């Protein structure tokens, strides 16, 4: 429904959609989060396909794939896992939000079908 409202074909102004993925979609998260990784891989695939379907209607679709981030979900293993990040720390939710806001902004008007890693340098 949102895509229909945004579509320039239907009188909309176009727009941007950002879906949230995860670095786990790339590495597979063996041993602990294979199902989670698979679900985020599906988000990547969906976003890529949708981006190609709606780009000519003035709609950009991208994903943001956060790396290790300080959340309730990661709190228990944070001290052990953060040093393995190239920047040596976990990100905070505000840093992830900055990547999202950039992709939603006019400054990213030529970016579509991209997966932005906000990961402290970790692939």
How would you concisely characterize the structure shown here?
By secondary structure, the chain is of the alpha/beta class. The chain has 5 helices and 3 strands; from the N terminus they run αβααβααβ.
Report what the structure shows.
The chain is an alpha/beta fold and 123 residues long. It has a single domain, classed as Rossmann fold (3-Layer(aba) Sandwich), CATH 3.40.50.720. Helix content is 37%, strand content 15%. The protein has a three-stranded parallel beta sheet with strand order 1-2-3, sandwiched between helices. The longest helix is centred in the middle third of the chain and has 21 residues. The model has no long low-confidence stretch (mean pLDDT 93).
Oligomeric state as shown = single chain
- How is the main sheet built? 3 strands, parallel
CATH architectural category = 3-Layer(aba) Sandwich
User: Nearest-angstrom radius of gyration?
Assistant: 16 Å
How much β-strand is present in the residues?
Answer: 5-15%
Tell me how many strands there are. 3
Number of domains: 1
The H-and-E topology, N to C, reads as HEHHEHHE
Mean pLDDT, rounded to whole units? 93
Helical content class: 25-40%
How is the largest sheet built, in terms of strand order? 1-2-3
CATH class membership: Alpha Beta
Mass-distribution shape: elongated
The fold-level CATH name is Rossmann fold
The helix/strand class is alpha/beta
